[in-house]
Each structure stands twice: as C-alpha cells, then as structure tokens.
Automatic annotation (TrEMBL):
<dbReference type="InterPro" id="IPR006638">
    <property type="entry name" value="Elp3/MiaA/NifB-like_rSAM"/>
</dbReference>
<dbReference type="InterPro" id="IPR007197">
    <property type="entry name" value="rSAM"/>
</dbReference>
<dbReference type="InterPro" id="IPR045784">
    <property type="entry name" value="Radical_SAM_N2"/>
</dbReference>
<dbReference type="InterPro" id="IPR058240">
    <property type="entry name" value="rSAM_sf"/>
</dbReference>
<dbReference type="Pfam" id="PF19864">
    <property type="entry name" value="Radical_SAM_N2"/>
</dbReference>
<dbReference type="InterPro" id="IPR023404">
    <property type="entry name" value="rSAM_horseshoe"/>
</dbReference>
<protein>
    <submittedName>
        <fullName>Radical SAM</fullName>
    </submittedName>
</protein>
<dbReference type="GO" id="GO:0051536">
    <property type="term" value="F:iron-sulfur cluster binding"/>
</dbReference>
<dbReference type="Pfam" id="PF04055">
    <property type="entry name" value="Radical_SAM"/>
</dbReference>
<feature type="domain" description="Radical SAM core">
    <location>
        <begin position="215"/>
        <end position="431"/>
    </location>
</feature>
<dbReference type="GO" id="GO:0003824">
    <property type="term" value="F:catalytic activity"/>
</dbReference>
C-alpha cells in the first residue's frame, strides 16, 4: 500500500507501522483477500492474546490470508498490520472478542466504517460481521444483535469448514451465510442449539508466530499447554465453562521447543495444575529456555518452578488468594487455606523474590469486619517474611453469566470506596491497586443487559 498523503491518515499509518515494525514474524502468507481479523482493543492487549496470532495461523492453513487489525479510539481508517490495507477494503470482518466493554469498540469501528450496527439493518453490500472468542462461552446475548455469524467456542475443529464458508462469502454473501449456518456451533440463524467443549490442543498445539516488545509478556513466544481449568472457583468463567480440560503432553511440547530461539510465555489456566509439571521443567531447563507463566496456584508451587522463573528474569512473585478471609475463600470455592498461602510465600522468599503481588476480589454479601481484620493479620504475616514490596490488586466481584455467582449483586460505588478507605488506613506499607469502578461497572452492565436494552442502545 502507498503511504497516505493526508496528515491524519499518515499519523494513523505511522502508528500502526511502529507496531508492525516491532514484530518478529515466524511465518507469513502473502496476499490480502479481503478478510480482516480485528482485535477490538489496543495493540498491547491484542499482542498479549495468543488468539490474535493463532486464529490468523489457523486461517492461513486453509489459504485464507487474513490480516490483523487493532483498535484505537482516534483511528479512522484502521490499517492492517501486514500490508497497511485500510479496513474498508475488506469484505469479511472477523472479530476476536474476549472482554465485554470492548463491545463499545466494535460498535465504534462499525460506525466509522459506515456499517449499520444491527445485523438486520445490513444488506448484501455490507461486509459480513463474524464474531468469535471467549465472550461466546458466557455472553452470547451481547453479540447476537450485531454478528451476522457467531463462532461459538473453539475454532480449531471447524476452521476448515468456516474457511470454505468465507471463500463462498467473498463471492456471494447470501450463499456464504447459508453454508456457514450448516456448521455445528456456528450461529447464523439465532434459533440454533450449540454445545461448549474444549478442543483437544494436543492435536494442534497453539503457539504464537509473532514476537514483539509491546506485548504484556515482553518479547516472548506464547504457547498454550492447557485449555480449561480443573478447578471450580465460583466467580470464574473458565472454571465453569471450559470442561473437560485438555493438556498437551510434554513430548509434544519438547518437539516444539527443541529448536526454540526465543523466551516463551506459557499459557494455561494455572501452570501448577499441569499434570506433568516436572517433565515440562526438565525440557525448559535442558534446552535453557527462559519462560514466564500466566498464572500459578499457591497450593501447587514448587521451589524448582520458582527458581527457574527467577532465573528467567521474573522479579515479581504473583499469587491470587482472591478471598480476603478463609470464609470468603470458602464461599468462592477457592480451595486454598492460609497455611498454603503462607507456605507458598515463604518459598518465594527462599528463592529470593523480593516483590510480591496478591490478587483479591471484594464485594461479597458475606463480607464483614472480621474478614477485613483477617486480611490485615494475613498481610502482617506476609510483611514478616521480608518482602521489600507487597502489592495488592483489588477487583470488585463481577457476577458473570455461566458462573454460580450470576445473579448476585454488584457492589455499589459507596461500598467500594469504603473498602478502599479502610485498606488505605489499615494496610500500611503495602501498595494498593484498585480496579477502576467505572470499568468494572461497565463490565457488569454488559454482563446483565437484556437483548432488548442492547438493541435500543445500539439503535441510538
Ligand atoms: S483456579 Fe483460576 S482459572 Fe481455575 S477456576 Fe479458579 S480462578 Fe478460574
């Protein structure tokens, strides 16, 4: 594509080019055929999601050279990462949608392209809007009025048929939609039944093909070794929808990693539940691969895992007690007790971690003063272990659809502020990071909005 001449367009093009130039790409495919893969958030969030890279690779396998796009509020043209093709040159928009408030970014993209938001207001000349991603596991209602096609759950087992459907769509929208409607777990006609299950990722090991310093993981190649979670925490969508869990055996990981040149980011619900953790660490140690993990549980942490993480350059030790007291952890079925948490934290000190980050969720009806006092006494015990820096990350409970907590009340702002005040007054010497109330409220809103309300909202 030629460089844009208008200064606004050039600014946008240059911004996309900065990220494009940062990427090391391990494979590529030529030719833009009018299919855009859009992550409706900024580049950092997009590049930190394995799905953005993986979905592109899956379609490439079937000769659909989709190009990647991301979102910024000030964008007008939306240039692709690969060939800087403006979005309006595409006939098919594939949205990889994971986080509820991003619905506003999807709507903004469609508006800026002059495409009606509601699917029943579009015609055969408008691009086909296909939406897939984690959102389809728990909040299908949010995409129903917008998407011409919803791809429910994992893509791997239906990508071949969907690619065929896209090829038809590119020639004739109506015939393409008819074809796609026949695929299991692909919804064109809203009345269709569907099932949720995890693709067996041993058959096709998901690994990213882009490495960029702008990812939240740093310059790492992402590899998914487990899909779903064996646990049942009541607030968690993954623990309540993505079953049965699929793990990749170490032999397959070894095949992939034996020639690995880059550090890796290991993606799984929690690495400590990976059934062959020691064998995995053997491989990483043997091939001298530096790595990070997306999450670990306090009850499964080993000194060896911590040592290797430290040697890989990780400085902050992160664990998620989630509940501020044992009572709250029991309410949420976290299956963790204080002794396990303290043992894990002691291990962190023994392996020389001096920064620790602890995740908590607040906003339960059952919470009372005693629970907060228990948190204070726990943090005092953590301080005595000798960490230089202790950070608490506090999030309000968002009672998500498809979890046992759905239907619970969302904390009001006054109570959230009271908790914030109490923590600042009582938890001295720790850093406190509170998730934005506004953003959480928005997440809760989109989690509970009815189809009618949503249609009204988008019709404005
Ligand atoms: S362990 Fe983590 S991923 Fe698994 S159910 Fe609990 S919160 Fe969810």
């Amino acid at each position: 594509m030629r460089r844009p001449r208008k200064s606004d367009d050039f600014k946008e093009y240059s911004y996309v080019k900065k990220f494009s130039d940062s990427e090391i790409r391990l494979n590529s495919i030529n030719g833009n055929r009018g299919v855009a893969l859009i992550f409706p958030n900024n580049y950092t969030v997009a590049a930190s999601s394995l799905s953005w890279s993986w979905v592109q690779q899956l379609f490439w396998e079937y000769n659909i050279p989709v190009e990647r796009y991301f979102y910024e509020k000030w964008f007008k043209k939306f240039y692709s990462i690969e060939s800087f093709t403006p979005l309006d040159e595409n006939k098919v928009f594939l949205f990889s949608f994971h986080f509820e408030p991003d619905i506003e970014n999807i709507v903004d993209i469609l508006k800026k392209q002059g495409i009606p938001i509601l699917k029943n207001q579009r015609n055969e000349n408008h691009p086909t809007i296909i939406i897939g991603g984690a959102i389809t596991f728990f909040n299908l209602e949010l995409v129903k009025p917008i998407a011409d096609v919803i791809v429910i759950g994992d893509l791997e087992d239906k990508v071949e048929q969907i690619s065929e459907g896209i090829n038809i769509l590119l020639k004739d929208k109506e015939s393409g939609l008819k074809f796609l409607d026949k695929i299991d777990n692909v919804i064109v006609n809203e009345q269709k039944n569907y099932t949720l299950s995890n693709f067996d990722i041993s058959k096709k090991l998901p690994a990213s093909h882009i490495i960029t310093r702008f990812s939240e993981f740093g310059e790492k190649r992402l590899i998914e070794i487990g899909r779903g979670c064996i646990r049942r925490c009541k607030f968690c969508v993954m623990g309540n929808t993505k079953k049965p869990v699929k793990f990749v055996k170490p032999e397959l990981i070894k095949d992939l990693l034996k020639d690995e040149k880059y550090p890796i980011g290991i993606i799984s619900a929690t690495i400590t539940d990976y059934p062959w953790l020691d064998e995995l660490l053997d491989i990483l140690e043997y091939y001298e691969i530096k790595f990070s993990v997306s999450s670990m549980r306090a009850d499964g942490i080993t000194k060896r895992l911590l040592r290797l993480l430290k040697e890989s350059g990780q400085n902050t030790y992160t664990i998620a007690p989630e509940g501020i007291s044992q009572k709250i952890r029991d309410v949420m079925l976290k299956d963790l007790n204080e002794e396990e948490l303290l043992t894990a934290l002691e291990m962190g000190r023994m392996e020389d971690f001096s920064n620790v980050k602890l995740y908590y969720i607040v906003g339960f009806d059952e919470e009372d003063n005693e629970d907060f006092n228990e948190l204070k006494s726990f943090i005092d015990k953590v301080k005595k272990l000798g960490y230089k820096s202790i950070t608490l990350s506090i999030n309000p409970l968002i009672p998500k659809k498809n979890t046992p907590f759905y239907g619970r009340k969302f904390i009001n702002e006054r109570r959230y502020n009271e908790i914030r005040k109490w923590m600042y007054e009582n938890l001295k010497g720790v850093k406190l990071h509170f998730e934005s109330y506004k953003l959480s409220k928005k997440q809760n809103l989109y989690n509970n909005i009815s189809l009618e309300e949503l249609i009204n909202l988008f019709s404005k």
